[in-house]
Amino acid sequence: MKGKLLYEGKAKKLYATDDAEVVLVEYKDDATAFNGEKKGTITGKGEMNNAITTLLFTLLAKEGVENHFIEKINPREQLCRKVEIVPVEVIVRNKAAGSMAKRLGLEEGTELKTTVFEISYKNDDLGDPLINDHHAVAIGLTTFEELKAIYNMAAKVNEVLSAFFLKIGITLIDFKLEFGRASDGRLLLADEISPDTCRFWDAATGKKLDKDRFRRDLGSVEDAYHEVLSRMENAGE
Ligand code: C5P
């Protein structure tokens, strides 16, 4: 079943399976930040992110967002459809935080008059630089047509997830998505959606329930991930 290691990323390992169209994704406890400059381990993160991504990709599929997730096969591993990753990271922001707050001199949590969509070139050597649509098309990462489909899917993901998290008392501040091309040409949402890739703030207290606790040494990192997962499980999703 679990074939050869195809790729090892910062938080996941990807293995081949007997089926050429299917990959096995193993979620690791390793955590990195600032493009790999800060390294650590978050105990139980692999299992929690596998569980959180499973619940969210299942919810998104139900809401019509086609994605690569097939099934969770054990606490740390899931099967996904094999895709060619579009080398563009899409960031969706509902409130200013992180790099956008810093770059534009805004206080974190500042309300935005519109949802902000950013793209960056997925390239570790360059530190995933922020680019615009024209850069992405000019250097051959994607096409305007594919980008249009990507933005439409990202907006739908934001709609579904913002409403879901609101119900469990969490404000979805921002998040990062990746997309892939399946062998049949379909564009699928890929990668993961977890506290590693989203900013989650408790709606009542503003407490950070995501990887910023690791990035900024705020403590109680595992507890925050666990809090998100248990609220999701109690919501019955
Ligand atoms: O750091 P920045 O503010 O640009 O991050 C925006 C959102 O995208 C955050 O939720 C962060 O966790 C996520 N992100 C990510 N992977 C990256 C860059 C950002 O998951 N390489």
Automatic annotation (TrEMBL):
CDD domains registered for this protein in UniProt: SAICAR_synt_PurC
Catalytic activity: 5-amino-1-(5-phospho-D-ribosyl)imidazole-4-carboxylate + L-aspartate + ATP = (2S)-2-[5-amino-1-(5-phospho-beta-D-ribosyl)imidazole-4-carboxamido]succinate + ADP + phosphate + 2 H(+)
Keywords, sorted A to Z: ATP-binding, Ligase, Nucleotide-binding, Purine biosynthesis
Keyword Glycoprotein: no
PROSITE patterns for this protein: SAICAR_SYNTHETASE_1 (PS01057), SAICAR_SYNTHETASE_2 (PS01058)
Pfam families: SAICAR_synt
Pathway annotation: Purine metabolism; IMP biosynthesis via de novo pathway; 5-amino-1-(5-phospho-D-ribosyl)imidazole-4-carboxamide from 5-amino-1-(5-phospho-D-ribosyl)imidazole-4-carboxylate: step 1/2
Superkingdom, taxonomy of origin: Bacteria
GO molecular function terms noted in the UniProt entry: ATP binding; phosphoribosylaminoimidazolesuccinocarboxamide synthase activity
Listed EC numbers: 6.3.2.6
Domain SAICAR synthetase/ADE2 N-terminal intervals: 5-231
InterPro entries for this protein: SAICAR_synt/ADE2_N, SAICAR_synt_PurC, SAICAR_synth, SAICAR_synthetase, SAICAR_synthetase_CS
GO biological process: 'de novo' IMP biosynthetic process; cobalamin biosynthetic process
Similarity-based family: Belongs to the SAICAR synthetase family.
NCBIfam families the record matches: purC
Protein name as it appears in the record: Phosphoribosylaminoimidazole-succinocarboxamide synthase
Gene: purC
